Amino acid sequence: MSILHLAVKSLSNRKATALLTIFSIAISVALLLGVERVRVEARNSFTSTVSGTDLVVGARSSSLNLLLYSVFHMGNATNNITWETYQDLSSNKAVAWTIPIALGDSHQGYRVVGTAQSLFEHFRFGDNQPINFSNGKPFDDLYDAVIGSEVAAAVGYRVGQEIVLSHGVESRSLQTHQDKPFRISGVLKPTGTPMDRVIMISLEGIEALHIDWVNGAAPNALFSVSADRARAMDLQPSSITAYFVGLKSRVAAFRYQRAVNEYRQEALTAILPGVALGELWQLVGSAEKALLAVSVMVVVAGLVGMLTTILTSLNERRREMAILRSVGARPGHIFTLMMTESLIYAITGTLLGFLLMYGMLFAIQPVVQMQLGLHITIALPGIFELILAVAIIVSATILGAVPAWRAYKNSLADGLTVRL
Known about the structure:
By secondary structure, the chain is α+β, with helices and mostly antiparallel strands. It has helices spanning about 5-10, 15-45, 65-70, 85-90, 120, 150-155, 205-210, 225-230, 255-260, 275-285, 285-315, 320-325, 330-370, 385-410, 410-415; strands at about 55-60, 80, 95-105, 110-115, 125, 130, 135, 145, 160-165, 180-190, 200, 240, 240-245, 270. The protein is built from 15 helices and 14 strands.
């Protein structure tokens, strides 16, 4: 009978203890690998929130503040960029395209972003992926709106439905633009980026909403401008919040950045989005490192539990070891048997941990996508995950050497002598 077969038979005689030990290792492995998978996907999703954009330009402020309000639509700009400045800088011969954005209003807690058709043509995220529509099309009327996938799912909106935007960014605003409702022209496919959580209208639509507002105050009924009347008025924006820049050649990025930062007519800042996203991740990424450390400690606890189980069973198995020795098993065979049992625990627990991890990922993927806008890719284990699995098995083997050595040292007489 081989050592492996003997180890399996021995474990089958202690099914309850063996299964509990394997399951505890599996849970700890699943937690570690699951946290690692979510950590990697979160970092990838975060750093690829915007791709293909060479620079982001806004009013003079810190790079992180500019990144937050322009890309993540969080907070407010320190100032706006005049339309004349935007046109002057966007006409630079190094510029291939620009995407202007204007922030201000909201709807049920979701930010309204005024932009241009160029967003649907040039905006990229992830691995240079364009934004696509699940239903409808880009806005082509003054009162058309395009909504992100999360907005559509959370509020239940569909193409053709009318919505009324609120003044300001509060989730429950007391002032609304009731006189100028918008019609949903399109719903975006999920992107896993802040684009899922915005309502996009044209820059002219932003101007139409506020054409009769004075210093942030709603117009008097006698002086209000109707939606139809606003169509005939000059709706060219007077300012924008920021704009994205795509250059003809990335070699010109630093030259254009210097030109923006040294622009004399206005105090502006141009940032490289990839660099700024990396800086922001360094600030918010400490939590995922702490979570990974906790997961490692859980795995260590699972392996220590395995060690405790084997050590505890040694006293009960002394007679078993003595009988094996009496039928010709050498001390080396006893040592190998105990090591084999540790390997069975580790390998079976690790494989079961992978199955639990994939089951967990399949279960939480739609929820995380909907609630957090984070797309978790369910793919084959990566190199780092395989390294973690091997490290767990090697660690279990090393820990298994402790009870194996104790069993090796037990003598034949120790198991057969009756203790009073």
